[in-house]
Each structure stands twice: as structure tokens, then as C-alpha cells.
Amino acid sequence: MALLADERDFAAMRHYASFAFDDHGAYLRQMEGLLKALAAKGVHTTVALFDPVAYEEFCADTRLDPDTPASRTRYTAELAAAGGTVTYEGQPIDRLVPRLIGVADEQATWEYATALLSRAGHRGECRDDTTARAAFDRAGAALRKVVEAAGPGVHHLVCSVPADGTSLVAVLHADAREADPPKLPEPSGLVFRTVLACGFALRSPGGLVLRTIVADAPETVRGWALHDGWLRPLSEAEVFTAYCTDAETGEPIPPEHGVEYRAGIPLGSPE
């Protein structure tokens, strides 16, 4: 199923005569009812984000009439094949929609980062895939070293990489409360490694931040800067300054209550 999660996207579809809905709230309630009915019959359903602009482009490319339910069904099938879906497991619609938007943003970030990483291997007329592959391998090694160095706890990682006039941001959660090595969830782990690899390949001045939650202890925040194809640990003062400075105005902001700002851990070179 493809869902119009945004009111503006919903409004854009209303100019099609075959689109029968006129109220976004009622539309979402009906979609939720349909999802529940399918689940009650034992039907496995995944949900994708319906993008009216991409839908128009799809119809133009495939020479389909956009004002038909059949065309919308074809587009939905293409979305499902491309990924970026959320499995319906009985969650209410007000939880499903934010998750769906997050997954769509994650998919877009991965696609853009993949394109940038691929471009990093081009030199004039020549193509050298080893540059992208080596950066991706280093990103995987760096991510493993960060999580291992952080020790037990629930880890929340954010990687930010300025590239090509925009900012790529990837988020990853890793649960290391068990004795076994933490498993990094996919596709979030793939997106994270790809964004970090972009920073390594492009020699971008990005950064990685790690927030760790451990029972009966203050939350800790550590940070690393991307430097020369690896991660340079930030000092405690650098971490504090990064978190306690408004990114837009440069003005200081109060530190978070119950959070300790610590220096990044030296990770050692992967070679």
C-alpha cells in the first residue's frame, strides 16, 4: 500500500477526478481501517510513501494516464520493489506515518550518498571502483571500532557529512546490552556506512557523534571528526562546544541535564 502521509501531497492528488478522497484525516482513518482488515485476514502488508511528483514523472516515463486507479497501482508496485517500505504490524496510523517518512528520508539519503560515492571513483574518462569500495570498507571498520570502544549500553550514533552543497545525515541505533557483539540493524546500518564512506572518499570535514545510555548512569556523549579518511577523536572541550553551541546563530546554549560530555576514544588506524 502507498500512503499519502503529508497534507500537501494529499492536496496535490485531489485534482485527479479518479481520486475519491477530499479530507486527509478521513483518508488516513480509512487507510488504517483497510490495514487492520487485511491483517485480520492474515495478509502481510508493507506500506510505502506516495510521492505525487514522482508519480507524475513515473506516468510520463511509462506513458500511463495518471488519472486512473490502475496507474496508481502500478506506481505502488514500483515503490515496493525499490524498497523504503514499512511492515504493518498493527501499529496505529499516528505511529506508522512518522516511521514511514523516516524510512523514505533514509532511502533518499542512501540513494544520494551512493551516487556521490560512485562519482568519487571517476577521474575524467576513467572509472576506478576501488576508491568507493575502499572507503566503504573503512567506514564499516570505523563503525565497528566505535561501537566496540563504547562498550555496553544502548548507543545512538549520528553521522553528518557536508557534500555537494548539502548535508548528508545518517542515524543508527545499536543495542550492546547483551554479552554478544551488537548487531547493527539494516538498512540503517547500510545507510550509515554509505554516508560515512562518502565523507572518507570525498575527504569531507564531517563528524560522528555517539550518545550512550547505560542503566543507573548518566548519558554520555562522545564525538569524532572525519580527518584524512579516518575518525579523529574530539577532545572533551570540543564535544562540549559542539553540543552547546547553536549551529545557526553560533550562540551558546545550556548543556543537557544529566548528560556527560566526554572525549572521543582513539580508534587506531585500520591498516
Offer a few descriptive terms.
271 residues, six-stranded mixed beta sheet, three-stranded mixed beta sheet, 8 helices
In short:
Residues 251-271 are annotated as: Disordered. The chain has eight helices and eleven strands. It has 271 residues and is of the alpha+beta class.
Q: Total strand count, please?
A: 11
Q: How does the major sheet shape up?
A: 6 strands, mixed
Number of helices: 8
What oligomeric assembly is this protein in?
single chain
Unreliable spans: none
- Percent helix: 40-55%
* SS strand fraction: 15-25%
What's the mean pLDDT score? Answer: 89
Characterize the overall form.
globular
What's the number of domains? 2
What structural class is derived from the secondary structure elements?
alpha+beta
State the order of secondary-structure elements, H for helix, E for strand: EHHEHHEHEEHEEHEEEHE
Radius of gyration: 22 Å
User: What is the straight-line distance between the termini?
Assistant: 47 Å
Region (Disordered): 251-271
Q: What can you tell me about this protein's structure?
A:
By secondary structure, this protein is of the alpha+beta class. It folds into 2 domains: 2-91, no CATH class; 129-261, no CATH class. It contains 8 helices and 11 strands. The protein has helices at residues 7-13, 24-40, 52-62, 69-82, 93-120, 129-150, 188-202, 236-243; strands at residues 2-3, 46-49, 86-87, 122-123, 126-127, 154-163, 166-175, 207-213, 219-227, 230-233, 259-261. Strands 6, 7, 8, 9, 10 and 11 form a 6-stranded mixed sheet that branches. Strand 4 (122-123) and strand 5 form a beta hairpin. Helix 5 packs parallel to helix 7 and helix 6 (129-150) packs across helix 7 (188-202). The longest helix has 28 residues, at 93-120. It starts with a strand and ends in a 10-residue tail after the last strand. The mean pLDDT is 89. Residues 251-271 are annotated as: Disordered.
